[in-house]
Design brief:
The chain is an alpha+beta fold. Helix content is about 20%, strand content about 35%. The chain has three helices and 15 strands. Strands 1, 2, 3, 4, 12, 13, 14 and 15 form an eight-stranded antiparallel beta sheet that branches. The chain has a four-stranded antiparallel beta sheet with strand order 7-6-5-11, with no helix packed on it. The longest helix is centred in the first third of the chain and has 26 residues.
Length: about 260
């Protein structure tokens, strides 16, 4: 059961308790009697829970980075704020579109419901828009037959969960007005060819910035428009569980 559903049920339960007391129980109570502890808690928590639910459902939602697929942009333990209203308002839980928002753009970092299991949220970068043809040859990315250039930045040390340090290479890439960094292992066994693949209507092709270590659209297909949760805006907190330390250099990183 996801957090949004739990929060919704909590809002409904506390709201019903407060409403029943207001309309029924309060009239039957003697003037000198106090309301029960349950009613007192429900009346106190209902407005707080309602505000939190509305903010999470329609405006902003926090998201914790669960894997290293977006290294070097995002690290495991980063907490990002997701903008949900910029793409249009949707009803929570059933995800029905209410208003039309701005378009998804290539290069955006998006949180979405994993197509194979919508109970899971993933975060990747938008590489292909509807109608685009995507092809990967080794470490080269082609969109509509055009090679997307990448500029070598320097060596990058990749730290695994087990504590191993693996040398990789860091590159700078530009897409859709976004400038970002990616890493590649640059070894034949880590590379893979993909495509050409034409992105269907109302669907988006996603890839991780850790190009050779990302479970993304190359393996399970595109992300339907209705699965998009929102656009990641910035890192508001970062915790390194291996070193038990706050990563101050990550906090405040913009993803626009």
């Amino acid at each position: 059961m996801n957090f949004t559903l739990l929060l919704f049920l909590a809002v409904v339960l506390t709201g019903l308790i407060w409403l029943v007391d207001l309309l029924v129980l309060r009239r039957r109570r003697a003037a000198e009697q106090h309301e029960s502890l349950v009613v007192d808690y429900a009346r106190s928590f209902f407005p707080v829970l309602l505000i939190v639910f509305l903010i999470r459902a329609f405006l902003f939602e926090p998201f914790k980075i669960p894997s290293g697929s977006m290294i070097p942009t995002l690290r495991v333990g980063d907490f990002v704020l997701v903008n949900k209203y910029s793409l249009g308002l949707r009803l929570p839980l059933i995800h029905t579109q209410l208003t039309q928002g701005g378009p998804v753009q290539a290069g955006d970092v998006m949180v979405f419901r994993y197509p194979k299991d919508p109970r899971e949220d993933y975060i990747k970068r938008v590489i292909g828009l509807p109608g685009d043809t995507i092809e990967v040859k080794g470490n080269d990315l082609y969109i509509n037959g055009k090679l997307i250039p990448q500029k070598y930045v320097g060596p990058f040390t990749y730290h695994t969960h087990e504590g191993y340090a693996i040398p990789t290479k860091e590159y700078q890439q530009e897409l859709g007005g976004h400038t970002f960094h990616i890493i590649e292992f640059d070894t034949p066994e880590a590379q893979m060819d993909f495509g050409p693949y034409k992105v269907p209507p109302h669907c988006y092709f996603m890839m991780g910035d850790d190009r050779d270590n990302s479970n993304d659209s190359r393996f399970w297909g595109c992300v339907p428009e209705q699965n998009i949760v929102g656009k990641a805006m910035f890192v508001w907190f970062s915790w390194d569980a291996n070193d038990w330390a706050i990563r101050w250099n990550q906090i405040g990183r913009s993803l626009d």
